[in-house]
Amino acid sequence: MKKRIRFTALVAATAMTVGLLAGCGGAQNSSPTAGTADEKADSTPAASGETYNWQVGNVLAADQPWDMGLQKFAELLNEYSDGRMTLTVQSGGSLGSEIEMLEAVQMGTLDFSILSTPSMSGFATSLNYFDLPYLFHSTDSAWAVMDEWLAEDRMEALEAEGAGFHGLGFYDNGEYMIAGNIKIEHPADAEGQRIRAHSSQLQCDTLAALGANPLSVAWGDIYTSLQQGTIDAVSGTTLTNMYGGKFYEQTDYITMTKQHFIPAPVVMNEDLWQSLSDEDKEIVTKAFNESVTYQREEAKKYAADAKQVMEDAGVEFIEIDAAEFADATKSVYDSWVGKDGIEQDMIDKIQASDAEK
């Protein structure tokens, strides 16, 4: 019997809603930031006089890493604009699902939103590379590549698609893994397992390549589905969100497969961005970049604390040979290159940069 140990922050249900146990199916602008704080910015631009009252939507709970970053962003916006820019953070899915909030940002009825990259696939294809399995050899190397060029490159590509978004950059979201009651140490161990996946077809194909049966289950139904045995395991989410959803109460093992590095882009309405003066664009950029550094640090601490809580509750964490799992999922690349914005030359460029880190 696992102990229930309360942690300081809880993650609300995300609204990646698809039918319970439905089989997986196919379902921005030139960015001045590469995803890190601009340490060379020594002064804040002069205020232009305009006053703004903005809102940002977040499906995850208050006091969880996404919220922490957004709250810091709001604080810095207000400070650097001398109180002219107010950003209200609406966490806990109070403004709808990620898809609904993206639609609102696109239409201009919501100013900013944060999301998992797979949610963008229905609006633009530029972020689909992050759904490829084992694109990077480690999280640290992934962030090094992101900071060097990839974050800015992908935000520029998002702009070029003309979907109505300006991308500010990326917060930390973690890596996907598998939690269940079967010990998965090798790809063959996943054979026939009914594993909850994200609605991303690419992610479903990754689990299928391991021999699993990927199923789309609404976020709010995962806990009950594990409890009732209608699914054997859950993937398509990160360590901190597995803690927040309390899935560890219904699972004995968490396998650190880390099959997808999934950053969290923060986007704003493109017309809103273009309406800002150059000085105000600098304020937004500076405030966001500095919030990125803060958010990453907080996310790392949060994940470590959550892991300890789950271990204390009796969950066994399993480390795997990533090369073995990467080899088992190579077929995903074969079937996806040339589709939905995924090109071999970009994969080669990313992986060459990754190999240098």
Descriptive account of the structure:
With 357 residues, the chain is of the alpha/beta class. It is built from 11 helices and 12 strands. The protein has helices spanning 65-80, 98-107, 139-160, 201-209, 222-228, 239-244, 270-275, 278-312, 322-328, 330-336, 344-355; strands at residues 22-23, 52-57, 85-90, 112-114, 165-171, 178-180, 194-197, 213-216, 233-234, 253-255, 264-269, 316-318. The strands form 2 sheets. It has a 7-stranded mixed beta sheet with strand order 1-8-7-9-6-10-12, covered by helices on one side. Helix 1 (65-80) links the parallel strand 2 and strand 3. Helix 1 (65-80) runs antiparallel to helix 8 and helix 3 runs antiparallel to helix 11. The longest helix is centred in the C-terminal third of the chain and has 35 residues, at 278-312.
Features:
single chain, 357 residues, alpha/beta, 5-stranded mixed beta sheet, 11 helices, 12 strands, 38% helix
Task: Give the topology, please.
Blueprint: E1 22-23, E2 52-57, H1 65-80, E3 85-90, H2 98-107, E4 112-114, H3 139-160, E5 165-171, E6 178-180, E7 194-197, H4 201-209, E8 213-216, H5 222-228, E9 233-234, H6 239-244, E10 253-255, E11 264-269, H7 270-275, H8 278-312, E12 316-318, H9 322-328, H10 330-336, H11 344-355
Parallel strand pairs: 2-3, 2-4, 7-8, 7-9, 10-12
Antiparallel strand pairs: 1-8, 4-11, 5-11, 6-9, 6-10
Helix pairs in contact: 1-8, 3-11, 4-10
